[in-house]
Specification:
alpha+beta; seven-stranded antiparallel sheet; repeat; GTPase activator activity; TBC1D8B_PH-GRAM2; Rab-GAP_TBC_sf
Length: about 1100
């Protein structure tokens, strides 16, 4: 590898390097200790350790070439090599292309400049095809060389970054280098002759977390396949951990979570993943999640600045975040103040003429925002104007005081509201009013105390609107949160749900979309629509809105439209309950976009087949319980209790367990705070019932206590009629249970657990996602092994090892395959056995690793025949049960010598089928494949066949269902046996045995022919005798076959029944001994595991 020319002092280098070649301008050196007998002794050992600790390139490149300037002690390193062959190529290139040219220069300086320019040109040419795209390409190239040399992974494996750290083996730290690539976490260390090499695939990581203890102040804990690994002494541990977390989750999504990965085009090409790209992606995800923006938004710019808050009369410090379509601001304390400005709302962008470096953004609704102390504010203004097409306002001299209109903006005057109204009117089939306004209109003439409180709430919100503005660009402050906790008024609930969830942005970006989807989805009939129809009448059946056709039809349209929009989710139970509540307070199109926001952004992966998102949040909830309610954790023997109880809480946002009048207050908080609100409320509920739960003796008692609590949660301020309120039926009854108001419960959850930050929840989600998916995978494996173990004669441990190898080969096939960015043959919705399937090429690789006949010259043909035999449905895929049955039939495990020689009937049956299961014989082959397994017997031909016949009489399928083996198949069968015997110590005796078998079979056939047709028997057998006697020579074997069709009177080809072949084979002890040869399956599996990756690397 050519290196960027750097100075080295030859005087000091001579102690560590040995001279190999030299001329007037170049020196070729070898690292001391490399290539010497015994490793160079103690000196070589110390040099190797020094190279590893100091991250010297010499560890993986022990040869180098220096450019020397005559009469100078300063040399320039220009090339290095991992072996003598590589460095010799560089040396020869220099002699052929550079040496002759250097002689024409007059000065040493000109020579050095010429050499440096030439070497830099070579590096630049190499860089065009290199993965080195980091900040320091030269250093990264060296790291890439070490990575490739140390671990021998395929060159397509993309190194993302690397870090110096310590790996702990017990209590001993080993200093080395951690390499993070797209598919693997790798570590290398070499200390005093002890080499540590660790390769962990990201998809095998089940736990990834930062830990600390007495020995390790702060370390990163990685758990993979039950083994724990600890890495510490990072310079930037938080940055390292974040990158590892992203790579692990990327691999998990790509391999296991196909539904999520398909929706993420950013991750399609693993070769494009870089450290900088992952960091930018993490910031973009955090940005869009915090401000509830569409997932497509990516963070482009971040500027520290101050935002003028007019109603508080002060500047708040924070960050301005800019994406393709939005300008957002969040104060340093995110809860203090935040603003979202869609570029579609911007009217003008200006800069002030004073020294405040201010940017003024004017939006619709007579509102302006002033950002001050913005670095490079003039360039920012120019970029923003170009982005949104806005021009300067008519008042160019804007003062530093930019007012926000103090008048409350009438919603009817808001341009955005008008445009949304127009969009809703584009379809005549959808409801343009929320169901609550139709079925429970407010009667202003009869105001009771609850209605008065409702009007007071509305007035509080109107005051907030007058101060903070109304619509998508309003200021969101602590006061906003306080009003949400108290409960949003019925008349404003739909509008504010749209605003806080970000659904208003989705609807504005897709005008008329809902009406189109409704029209396209009408009349469709599939599994999703059938499930929707079944659940329509179960959605809030006690509410009059869903006892009428109006509500049912609206619910049907929204759910069917969403299933049409997102067929990967389609319809999931609990979506009907959530959507029915949305329809009560939001117009139909708004309810649709609210459902989109919930399913695709706020609760990701909740509503799919495996509800992974809900399981992840339950794991987060358990973690929070351990942190905040340790006494409850100590009391509960099994934490899965909380998972089973809380699943409906997360899936339905407490709607299914709380009365409707209380549940809507929870939904208010959810749309404002996201999943954080649900987690906080869950903790508050457990905390409130802590004493009762601690007194419970079992899970059933605890569930009963929680159900009683939910039945006694009320909403004393709800304006809903008593006929609708679910809690009203028990509110007046005398009960020993204390009533709990939902507003007090939510306020308490904010006071006690409001310090839980969204960033922490995001980190816990990522961490627990690994655990949840690996747990699901482990469940899949255990179910597969349980089913397969009943039919395949391998131990559970052997099946477990085989399953790991089977699945790993499937993963390896897609690690570096750009045409298949997701795992093609993995579908978690299928039954356990069908979730993972391999194709013919993958089976061939595994067959070569595991088959005792892999040394055979025609091993590829054997693999192909075996695959065809196993592929019963001809879809070119086989599952683990089919694969393991092939291995079980071909592998002979260790046997007790005292039992004598035994031969497995099913092995011979299986082997014979390889040559008769042609496509034309598919029916017969299928019946042969389904032949039942039997126990092994002694080699006694008569007793063997007699007992076997008795057993087969009891079965629907018997040996006679097997097709007879014809002439060409028998010749191929014989040649295959000869290939299997090649290289065996008993090769000669095996050849003689197979010759005896073939002769015996031919004589048997001859006798049969004479009995049925004495005149024609010899004609067919004369050519056959020549074929079989010359089996090792394929040319001789095929000549008689070519002559046969040309005979004037075509005679029927001779053939053999399986009973004949079996009896003949069992009569030869050499053949029986060959097939009964003891093979250590455990060693085979271990060897396959270790060589699986290296085998692919060689390719």
């Amino acid at each position: 590898m050519w290196l960027k020319p750097e100075e080295v002092l030859l005087k000091n280098a001579l102690k560590l390097w040995m001279m190999e070649r030299s001329n007037d301008y170049f020196v070729l050196q070898r690292r001391r200790g490399y290539g010497e007998e015994g490793g160079g002794g103690l000196t070589g050992l110390l040099v190797g350790t020094l190279d590893s600790v100091l991250d010297s390139t010499a560890k993986v490149a022990p040869f180098r070439i220096l450019h020397q300037t005559p009469d100078s002690q300063v040399y320039l390193s220009i090339a290095c090599g991992a072996d003598r062959e590589e460095i010799t190529k560089h040396w020869e290139w220099l002699e052929e292309n550079i040496m002759k040219t250097l002689s024409v220069f007059d000065s040493n300086e000109d020579i050095t400049n010429f050499v440096q320019g030439k070497i830099r040109g070579l590096i630049a040419e190499e860089g065009k095809h290199s993965f080195a795209k980091e900040d320091d390409p030269e250093k990264f190239r060296e790291a890439l060389l070490k990575f490739e040399k140390c671990f021998g992974l395929p060159e397509q494996e993309k190194l993302v970054t690397y870090y110096s750290c310590s790996y702990w083996k017990g209590r001993v730290p080993c200093q080395g280098w951690l390499y993070l690539s797209t598919n693997f976490l790798s570590f290398y260390s070499f200390l005093l002759g002890s080499e540590i090499k660790l390769i962990i695939s990201w998809d095998a990581v089940s736990k990834l977390e930062k830990t600390s203890n007495v020995i390790l102040t702060e370390s990163i804990h990685v758990c993979s396949q039950g083994e724990n690994h600890y890495f510490s002494m990072f310079l930037h541990i938080n940055q390292t951990y974040l990158l590892m977390e992203q790579l692990a989750n990327y691999a998990i999504k790509r391999i296991f979570d196909k539904e999520t990965f398909d929706n993420d085009p950013v991750l399609d090409d693993p070769l494009q993943i870089t450290k900088r790209g992952l960091e930018n992606r993490a910031h973009s995800e955090q940005f869009s999640a915090f401000f509830r923006l569409p997932k497509e938004e990516t963070l482009k710019e971040v500027h520290e600045c101050f935002l003028w808050v007019p109603f508080s009369h002060f500047n708040t410090h924070g960050k301005m975040c800019i994406s393709e379509n939005y300008i957002c601001f969040a104060s340093q304390d995110g809860n203090l103040c935040s603003v979202i400005i869609p570029l579609r709302e911007v009217l003008a962008i200006d800069k002030t003429n004073d020294s405040s470096k201010s940017v003024v953004i004017s939006v619709k609704g007579k509102t302006a925002f002033r950002f001050s102390e913005v670095k490079e504010f003039e360039e920012l203004v120019a970029r923003l104007r170009l982005k949104c097409g806005a021009t300067s306002t008519q008042y160019h001299d804007i003062s530093t005081e930019v007012p926000v209109s103090s008048d409350s903006i009438d919603p009817s005057d808001d341009t955005e509201v008008q445009s949304l109204t127009c969009q809703r009117e584009c379809s005549r089939t959808v409801n343009t009013e929320a169901l609550m306004t139709v079925f429970h209109p407010q009667n202003l003439e009869t105001l009771d105390s609850k209605m008065l409180k409702e009007k007071m709430k509305e007035q509080s919100w109107n005051i907030l609107f007058s101060e903070c503005g109304r619509g998508v660009s309003m200021f969101r402050t602590k006061k906003t949160r306080d009003l949400v906790v108290r409960g949003i008024p019925e008349t404003l609930r739909g509008e504010l749900w749209m605003l806080f969830s970000g659904a208003v942005n989705d609807m504005a970006a897709n005008p008329g979309y809902y009406a189109e989807v409704v029209e396209q989805s009408l009349g469709t009939c599939n599994l999703a629509t059938e499930e929707i129809e079944r659940d329509l009448r179960r959605s809030l059946p006690e509410h009059p809105a869903f006892q009428s056709d109006t509500g049912i039809s609206a619910l049907r349209r929204v759910l069917t439209a969403y299933a049409f929009r997102n067929p990967k989710i389609g319809y999931c139970q609990a979506m009907n309950i959530l959507t029915s509540v949305l329809l009560l307070y939001a117009k139909e199109e708004e309810a649709f976009w609210l459902l989109v926001a919930v399913c695709e952004r706020m609760l990701p992966d909740y509503f799919n087949r495996r509800i992974i998102g809900a399981l992840v949040d339950q794991a987060v909830f358990e973690e929070l319980i351990r942190d905040h309610l340790p006494q409850l954790t100590e009391h509960m023997t099994d934490m899965t209790f909380f998972s089973s109880v809380s699943l409906s809480w997360f899936l339905t946002l407490f709607i299914s367990v709380l009365p409707i009048e209380s549940a809507v207050n929870v939904v208010d908080c959810f749309f404002y705070d996201g999943i954080k609100a649900i987690l906080q409320l869950g903790l508050a509920i457990l905390d409130y019932n802590l004493d009762k739960l601690l007194a419970c003796k079992d899970d059933a008692e605890a569930v009963t206590a929680l159900n009683r609590f939910f039945n006694n949660v009320t909403n004393k301020d709800s304006p809903l009629p008593s006929s609708v309120q679910q809690g009203s039926n028990v509110s007046d009854e005398k009960s020993s249970q204390i009533r709990v108001d939902i507003t007090d419960l939510i306020r308490e959850s904010n006071e006690k657990y409001g310090n839980i930050r969204y960033e922490n929840i995001h980190s816990m989600r990522c961490r627990n996602r690994l655990y949840v998916i690996q747990t699901l995978e482990e469940t899949t494996k255990q179910n597969v092994l349980r089913v397969v173990s009943q039919d395949v004669k391998l131990s559970l441990h052997e099946l477990d090892e085989l399953y790991v190898i089977f699945k790993k080969e499937l993963f390896f096939s897609y690690y570096w395959c750009l045409s298949s960015p997701v795992l093609k043959h993995h579908d978690p919705s299928l039954p356990y056995l069908e979730q993972y399937q391999i194709d013919c090429q993958q089976f061939r690789v595994l067959y070569h690793l595991l088959s005792p006949w892999a040394h055979s010259a025609n091993r590829d043909s054997l693999a192909l025949w075996t695959f065809r035999l196993l592929d019963e449905n001809s879809d070119c895929l086989i599952n683990f049960k089919e694969f393991s049955s092939a291995i079980a039939y071909t592998e002979v495990q260790y046997k007790d010598p005292s039992k004598g020689d035994e031969l497995s009937k099913e092995e011979l049956l299986y082997f014979s089928q390889l040559h008769v299961s042609k496509p034309a014989k598919e029916k017969e082959a299928k019946s042969a494949r389904n032949s039942p397994e039997k126990e092994k017997e002694k080699v006694n031909i008569q007793a063997y066949l007699s007992q076997w016949q008795d057993e087969l009489l009891k079965k629907e399928e018997n040996i006679k269902d097997l097709p007879r083996m014809n002439q060409s198949q028998f010749i191929q069968f014989s040649k295959t046996l000869y290939n299997l015997f090649h290289g065996d110590p008993e090769e000669e005796s095996l050849y003689q045995a197979i010759a005896v078998v073939t002769s015996l079979l031919l004589r048997m056939e001859e006798v049969g022919r004479k009995l049925h047709s004495p005149t024609s028997a010899m004609k067919g057998l004369s050519g056959a005798a020549v074929c079989v006697s010359g089996v090792p020579s394929e040319g001789q074997a095929e000549k008689p076959l070519e002559k046969e069709p040309s005979s004037p009177r075509e005679e029927p080809q001779w053939s053999f029944a399986f009973e004949q072949i079996l009896a003949s084979l069992l009569n030869e002890p050499a053949l029986v001994k060959f097939f009964e040869k003891s093979i250590d399956l455990k060693a085979k599996l271990e060897n396959a595991k270790t060589s699986q990756l290296s085998c692919r690397t060689k390719k």
